[in-house]
Specification:
With about 800 residues, this protein is mainly beta. The longest helix has 28 residues, at about 555-585.
Amino acid sequence: MKNIFCVLLLSMVQPALAQTKLEKAITNLEDHYDQEKVYLLTDKSQYAAGDKIWFKSFVFDGYNRSALSTTLFVELYDSDKKIIDWKTILLTNGEGSGDFQLKESLPEQVYYVRAYTPYMTNFNEDFQIVKTIPVYNPSSTESLVISKSSDWSAKAFPEGGTFINGIPTKFAVRLSSNTSLPENWTGKVIDTQNPKVPITTFTSFDKNVAAFTITPASGKKYQVVIHDNAGKDKTIDLPQVADSGLHLDVNSSKDGIKYTIKGANLKQQLQGYKIVGTINNHLAYKANIKQLTNEVSSLIPPKISNGANAVLQLAIFDEQDNLVAQRLCFIKPNDLKIEKAEIIGQSIKQTPRSFNSIDLSPESYFKNYTVLVSDDDGSNKPEEENILSSLWLTGDFTSKIDSPAQYFSKNANTEALDALLISENWKRFDWNSVLSGSVPTIKNNPQQFLSYKVKPIKNNALLVNAPVSLMLKLGKNQPVLNQFITDQNGYVYLNNLNNDDPLEVSLFVSSENNKEANTDNLFVTVEPLVTPTQFKGNFPGTKYTLVKSGANKVLPPAIAKAINTQKNNKKIESAEIEIDQVKLVGKKKDPKVELDKQLSSGMFSGEINSTIFDFVNEDQRAAGANNILDWLQGKVAGVTLQRNNSGINVPYIRNKPAKLYLDEMITDPAMITSIPVSNIAMVKVIKNSGLLGDAVAIYTMKGDLQSKNTGKEATKANSAIIKGYDKPSEFLVEMIDEDSPAKIEKDTRETLYWNPNLFDSDYVPPRIKFFNNDTAKQFKVLIISFDEDDHILYQNEIFK
């Protein structure tokens, strides 16, 4: 889809010899207006508190995956704009993935996911994606319901932006609402001097738009009266009829875009006028009219976009390079260039908990796939949005469009799409600003990966233009010593870091008189240079509203299934813990038991409902951990880590916050994370204790105890930790065994398979594999991919 742009001239036209203000503006546009957009795919459209949100992000520069950015910030907010969680996502070829673990205590409301690259912050915040996520909670005192009534407004847009006496003009009527739009609506056009006799009538194409054509007369005033299916009426004025000007008429087909320009009462007719077509910020078409004429027509061929689908902005300029008309149109609306997956084999069964597979061709031009398999309820509910609608519509337009995916569906109405584009303006740049020579202020240039500013301090003083040594240790790898010279401000820079394991930075400085260096007087801080920005805008309106819950709160069926799935997961985790405890029975006393007896006392003593990690007698491989809480991630079934508002990972047991104890005194996460891992003697995870409840107890070294952990010295002031990118969790494809100790009676999983990076390896067919739940009779399979030329593969199909 890498577009090849060309310049075409009308047969009556000769190319201009001298560079004009418009030509300078086009050069300005090409050089300074590159902009990115994001599409965010989530595994579901609604969630229960306690669920995990799986997401895949696609970043585009125009209609190609972006090579500008390698970092994406994804943030989760509540309705009060309080940030709940955030992720720093690595982008590879414009793609990245991650997940959010929702707390079980989240109140029921609409949440919002914001996604943007640092480069996108140079432009209007309205172009950053903000996705609405309804989250339900059976324990909340309020319930989400869909608003029954909606307050909407309407506007009428003449094609090209002009309304001229005696020239038939096509209008698009567009409805807007902060909540929801009426299902259907009709309208009529009237002359205010004779309102009882409609000039013409129309019916909406969809919730968003309708269209009609009218030939106006000078001196007349026209209005549109709109009537919706709920009985609401609204009247809007059409623009005043002009006696002179330029009219633009456009028709899009698979053969190209035919445009006709008509002039009325122009001094030099259309002589000297220019037609410019742009795709994103690139020139795609240009023509000059050199002859005296009041009408001209031409066909713009699809090759201006290399045959790919795109939104073309046509702009008409007069002989003084003033913008006089403009129009958006879609290239080849009846011929969408969308590839389908080549499936070479499949085994689909409706039997509960059966194994299913779909094999893709290893010889395809598409090598990496994003795949989502869901239980389909058979409702045949159409998609509201998808990657196609984001790529060609919503990623570039800030106005709210109801169910934009409908414009690129199998039975899409191309007239509706055309009317929608008549009602829109291209707002990524303004022609008048570009003509004046203004350029966007770029404060955040694209950077490769993550960069940091390191400030070394010795004896409380900056080291300016001085040699320093930084020991860099990534995860469990061997440390590497690097030599640097600080700059005039006393800083050292670590640029283009691509790490998702913690990177420990330790400072060393040569001492005077060749004596052994002493790190006690050294201090180092690390400041990220690629950082998120505060969200200043307003969240989009939604169709939901919160009401007080009744005595018998009713949840949507999908949410009830999600909550049951969470209960099943807890059963499985509990069964695994019981098995681990049974394995301990009958074992001889070991050093871990003796250490527990030595360190724990009172209600902390004993091993019932607890998991113990011995750092004195066993190497727990904690060398790469930022702190002991980060190390705990994934070590105990049912224990997860979630970031608090201070950015510290805190433990949750069965989705509820665990109490934290340091040497059997209750404490806070900040205190725990300040302790070097080498000073930890024992960690005890306690579940469902009668006195303690769910807790994590940390014990420090006492007496002559020494850490068994190797390769990790106590964290000192001369060291700092760089977190890097957030590593996505692994979606486990597991069969729920009917004979397992958990005894899962009803498997109600909705997301059966999630893989944001399914790829073929050495010509082995990429295989989509998943286990059925207990009720699914058909499966919705979504496949997205791009080849090396950014041709898109998109398939959303029901398998039975």
